[in-house]
Automatic annotation (TrEMBL):
Residues 4-189 form the ABC transporter domain. It comes from Paracholeplasma vituli. InterPro entries: AAA+_ATPase, ABC_transporter-like_ATP-bd, ABC_Transporter_VariousFunc, P-loop_NTPase. PANTHER family: ABC TRANSPORTER ATP-BINDING PROTEIN ALBC-RELATED. One of its GO terms (molecular function) is ATP binding. SUPFAM superfamilies: P-loop containing nucleoside triphosphate hydrolases (SSF52540). The lineage of its organism: Bacteria, Bacillati, Mycoplasmatota, Mollicutes, Acholeplasmatales. Keywords: ATP-binding, Nucleotide-binding, Transport. This is ATP-binding cassette domain-containing protein.
């Protein structure tokens, strides 16, 4: 049985039909890339998969007790704490142990308040929390937009590691080339 299944899902906004009877399944250890032009429905499909928005018809099945993570394309992070305090607090809520090796690999600017971090460093904090531990499913919306080349390599290594551990990742991206060495399923939404 798949972790998540979409069965004949349709979604429209007004008279704009984004998906018509779409059926997809997401299994353990698979990477799915949602690709397509701006406005083609990548974020909408992610939100449907997460049950954050309603379908117009069709159904979405989630295996019970799935550990899911979501990395949105933008979040303000208005926290006065430094990254280490913020991350430790988030991990305690998530009930996931601190992984110092993964944290050091990302090389986050630990000296500034989270709210004052650069865009790339904020994205690193979100990536840390999305890819720490052993989630069953990770949803990521444009996770590479503010990252430098070195960080992209680190993140790709982590994604490959998690895939080997059995994590399913569903990623909206314009950067298909980054995944050329990985086994991925591409969903073209144009
Ligand atoms: N809540 C909403 N109400 C009305 N229309 C919406 C809503 N959310 C999204 N849309 C529309 O649905 C379409 C798909 O939007 P979506 O954000 O899923 O696209 P996307 O592929 O993620 O785009 P981008 O690459 O620009 O991030 C767009 O035309 C958008 O305007």
């Amino acid at each position: 049985m798949s972790l998540i299944e979409l069965r004949e899902v349709s979604k429209r906004y007004g008279d704009h039909t984004l998906f018509e009877n779409l059926s997809l399944s997401f299994d353990t250890g698979t990477i799915h890339l949602l690709v397509g032009k701006n406005g083609s429905g990548k974020t909408t499909l992610l939100k449907l998969c997460m049950n954050r928005i309603q379908t117009d018809s069709g159904s979405i099945y989630h295996q019970k007790k799935l550990k899911c993570r979501y990395m949105p394309d933008f979040v303000e992070l208005p926290y006065v704490d430094r990254p280490f305090t913020f991350i430790s607090w988030m991990l305690s809520i998530m009930r996931v142990p601190l992984d110092l090796k993964w944290l050091s690999e990302l090389d986050i600017d630990m000296g500034s308040e989270v709210s004052n971090l650069s865009k790339g460093n904020k994205q690193k904090v979100l990536l840390y929390l999305s890819l720490v531990g052993s989630p069953d499913v990770v949803f990521m919306d444009e996770p590479f937009t503010a990252l430098d080349d070195k960080t992209i390599k680190v993140v790709m290594k982590r994604i490959a590691y998690l895939q080997a551990q059995g994590t399913c990742m569903i990623i909206s991206t314009h950067e298909i080339k980054l995944f050329s060495k990985l086994d991925v399923v591409i969903h073209a939404l144009d």
